[in-house]
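Before relying on records like the one below, remember that each one covers exactly one chain. Contacts with other chains, cofactors or solvent are not represented anywhere in the record.
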Amino acid sequence: MDKDFAQGTKVIAKDGAEGTLTGSTSDCQLTGCRGLRLYVRWADGKLTKPCTKGMQMKEGVWHIL
């Protein structure tokens, strides 16, 4: 597994909220999309699965665009 998708990698949402990757991924199911869904656990306990096609990696941190 790529280190960019490793458990504990930081994720920052558009609103500045911070979460961490669980280490799990899945293929995006949107028609024609070749991205990966990254499983993100947020401070409130919620689990989301944003697609890498709507994210950007900067200096070891994922940012949701």
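The chain is about 0% helix and 45% strand.
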